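Sequence design from tokenized structure. All designs in this work follow the same two-part layout: the structure record, then the generated sequence. An example of the structure record is given first.
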């Protein structure tokens, strides 16, 4: 079961932690400072901070002396408030066991247990302050925090990657085709990492497992944006490895009949503790996988029917 936040929730929590750590200074944080603290994409930062403002947790002021700051001390803001500012109310949207059984029309046998579990999680998040999480963040940064045994990020490595590829479609046609590819994007990622992993699979290193992928237009899903927040997570099926990517995808015009897709961001790799991946090898694999992803995405976009508004 996936118990992680959405990518938007992830960035809202990061931003809240950054503002919490700056609260005692009494100085508003600029967007560029929050971006530097959290490593979120620059083009997405204003939307993330706006979630905190709409949630009543932060305020903003324009101008040279402006920025963003928390409206209450971090000790008075709960983790639940931050999460709900991004994700909405923490509650089950549907029955835990589905709705297929004819004699479960009113309630399923798991309803009370599931409701109690959800309430317990809400209570824990409501009783954990943003100040506690910010203090942990500071301790992790200082190297004084002892990672728990069930940490999901043991010995993670990160590399910056950037690549681009041309598409044989004009910008408008490519943008519409890209929008229709959202539902198939995980397949493109799966194919890209599968191609890259084949040489290593023969040595028992890993094969790509379950893929979680998101592509969100900067400005919202319905906006006519040429910039997107791109993220994916792939868990290896052979050993305990995980590859994640966080970055941006942009679409630019080359001429009337061609456009260019560019992806830039950070590739994170959590290796098998018994078989760590050297940095040089990680960089090589990340670059090749990103190149394979872009080629696959360009091919999928070019195969879409051309429907220009």
């Amino acid at each position: 079961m996936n118990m992680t936040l959405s990518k938007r929730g992830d960035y809202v929590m990061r931003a809240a932690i950054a503002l919490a750590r700056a609260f005692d200074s009494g100085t508003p944080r600029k967007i560029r400072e929050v971006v530097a603290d959290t490593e979120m994409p620059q083009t997405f930062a204003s939307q993330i901070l706006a979630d905190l403002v709409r949630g009543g947790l932060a305020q903003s002021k324009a101008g040279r002396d402006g920025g963003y700051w928390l409206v209450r001390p971090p000790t008075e803001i709960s983790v639940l408030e931050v999460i709900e500012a991004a994700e909405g109310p923490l509650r089950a949207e549907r029955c835990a066991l589905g709705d297929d059984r004819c004699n479960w029309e009113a309630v399923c046998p798991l309803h009370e247990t599931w409701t109690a579990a959800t309430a317990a999680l809400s209570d824990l998040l409501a009783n954990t302050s943003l100040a506690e999480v910010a203090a942990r963040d500071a301790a992790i940064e200082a190297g004084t925090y002892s990672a728990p045994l069930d940490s999901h990020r043991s010995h993670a490595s990160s590399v910056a990657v950037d690549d681009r590829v041309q598409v044989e479609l004009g910008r408008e046609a490519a943008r519409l085709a890209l929008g229709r590819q959202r539902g198939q994007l995980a397949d493109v990622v799966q194919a890209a990492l599968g191609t890259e992993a084949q040489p290593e699979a023969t040595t028992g290193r890993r094969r790509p497992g379950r893929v979680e992928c998101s592509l969100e237009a900067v400005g919202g899903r319905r906006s006519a944006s040429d910039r997107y927040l791109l993220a994916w997570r792939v868990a290896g099926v052979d050993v305990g490895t995980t590859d994640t990517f966080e970055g941006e995808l942009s679409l630019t015009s080359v001429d009337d009949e061609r456009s260019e897709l560019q992806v830039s961001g950070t590739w994170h790799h959590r290796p098998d503790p018994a078989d760590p991946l050297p940095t040089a090898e990680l960089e090589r694999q990340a670059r090749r996988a990103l190149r394979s992803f872009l080629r696959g995405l360009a091919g999928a976009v070019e195969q879409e029917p051309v429907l220009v508004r």
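Strands lie at 58-61, 67-70, 157-167, 208-217, 227-236, 242-255, 258-270. We note this feature because it recurs in several other targets discussed in the main text.
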